From TrEMBL:
Its EC number is 4.2.1.11. Belongs to the enolase family. Residues 7-131 form the Enolase N-terminal domain. It is found in: Cytoplasm; Secreted; Cell surface. (2R)-2-phosphoglycerate binds at residues 160, 333, 362-363, 384. Its main location: cytoplasm. Its cofactor is Mg(2+). Residues 136-416 form the Enolase C-terminal TIM barrel domain. Keywords: Cytoplasm, Glycolysis, Lyase, Magnesium, Metal-binding, Pyruvate, Secreted. This is Enolase. The gene is eno. Mg(2+) binds at residues 239, 271, 282, 308. It comes from Metallosphaera hakonensis JCM 8857 = DSM 7519.
Length: 418
């Protein structure tokens, strides 16, 4: 029987992401007339175990859009939009593959997000309140990627992201505004040393100076922190994305104009942690090396070694990581697994085992701020959504500022220090 919560139509179409590539947007229309959309982000640096993004040979996503319009839409017609788990499981069953390669994870996640947003609207609830339910809600600590390397930039740096982490602040607004000052200081340093032309931005809004050596990038970021007098309040982080510079044939990492063995990489990271206020280190080894992740985490102590390509938001690989004690942190990317239901299952497994959680964007984003709500809904420790620049990044930060302003939620930066 139809009611105001029934899905009347599911419609998919192509839009463009922040790299100018086509991606999927799904629009859910309810019998009540309420409409909501969900967008599928896209990563440049991908784990091989990620759910499959369906993309045509010409780079378009017409096949994924067809999946929404000709398969998903008739299957969801008439269903109650509030039954998120039922709807997500139906799409998984409809796809029928382990990696969502038939319908495409991009088609499925765009629809899954749209369903959640439409349900929240139909109940006149904030998305974070609807998704989170009775959970405690707090504002996550941002991991701001202010200097870009790797596949996100046009320079020769192999480390993909150099981040600042504003921990010792009393509000999200205070933490973010301090980070903006550091970001601007870094921009000034790069302009002064290399010329204004090298303040060009990478995929995630960070500055992309003409560097090739990790130490030079770390020094620039730390100098910007010190110039703003923030060295006692702001920590540093890196996303190595090491799978992207690992030579499988030779078993070495090609970095800093040379090569390093896996054991030499351990010494490399330990040296950095000894000389810089490093709090966070993501994907320091290639995606199958659970053993060395574990060894490094054991030796780095309080540094949060984090798995992204290692886990790809999949409980199967998280279980393996827990058995080997590989990391203290996990990246949570809904499009890696394909549905919100599976994303939340992964998140909750990490939380229940005292693993730090990082709700994350992708390098190819849209202006949709959904992950800001998701991070608050699930009470994530961190959020990764790029530098404080470019609309597809600032939309998430501005949504978090809005949530803090309207709901007075606690900023949990100081609670992360143990």
């Amino acid at each position: 029987m139809m009611n105001g919560f029934s899905i009347a139509r599911v419609h998919g179409y192509e839009i463009i992401d922040s790299r100018g590539n086509p991606t999927v947007r799904t629009r859910i229309t309810l019998e009540s007339g309420i409409r909501a959309t969900g967008d599928a982000p896209s990563g440049a640096s991908k784990g091989t175990r990620e759910a499959v993004e369906l993309r045509d040979r010409d780079g378009s996503v017409k096949e994924a859009v067809d999946s929404v319009n000709y398969y998903i839409s008739p299957a969801l017609s008439g269903l109650d939009v509030r039954e998120q788990t039922k709807i997500d499981e139906l799409m998984i069953e409809l796809d029928g593959t382990e990696n969502k390669s038939r319908l495409g994870a991009n088609a499925i996640i765009a629809t899954s997000i749209a369903v959640a947003k439409a349900a929240a609207m139909s109940l006149s609830m904030e998305p974070f309140m609807y998704i989170g339910g009775a959970r405690r809600h707090a504002l996550p600590v941002p991991l701001l990627n202010i200097l870009n390397g790797g596949v996100h930039a046009g320079n020769m740096l192999k480390i993909q992201e150099f981040m600042i982490i504003p921990v010792k602040f009393d509000s999200f607004k205070e933490a973010l505004m301090a980070s903006v000052r550091i970001y601007k200081s870094l921009k000034g340093l790069v302009a002064e040393r290399y010329g204004k032309v090298y303040t060009a931005l990478g995929d995630e809004g960070g500055i992309s100076p003409p560097l090739s050596v990790t130490e030079d990038a770390l020094n620039l970021v730390y100098t910007a922190i010190r110039n703003e007098g923030m060295e006692d309040r702001v920590y540093m982080g890196m996303d190595a994305a090491a799978s992207d510079f690992y030579n499988h044939e030779k078993g070495v990492y090609e970095i800093d104009n040379g090569t390093k063995t896996p054991d030499q990489m351990i010494d490399f990271y330990l040296d950095i942690a000894n000389r810089y206020p490093l709090l966070y280190l993501e994907d320091p080894f290639e995606e199958d090396d659970f053993k060395r992740f574990s060894e490094l985490q054991g030796r780095l102590g309080k540094v949060i070694v984090t798995g992204d390509d290692l886990y790809t938001t999949n409980v199967k690989y998280l279980k393996k990581g827990m058995e080997t004690k590989s990391t203290k942190g996990v990246i949570v990317k809904a499009n890696q697994i394909g549905t919100l239901t599976e994303t939340i299952q992964f998140f909750d497994m990490a939380k229940e085992n005292s693993i730090k959680t990082v709700v994350s964007h992708r390098s190819g984003e849209t202006e949709d701020y959904f992950i800001a709500d998701l991070s608050v809904a699930l009470n994530s420790d961190f959020i990764k959504t790029g530098a404080p620049s470019r609309g597809e990044r600032t939309s998430k930060y501005n949504r978090l500022l809005e949530i803090e302003n309207d709901h007075g939620l606690e900023y949990q930066g100081r609670k992360l220090l143990w």
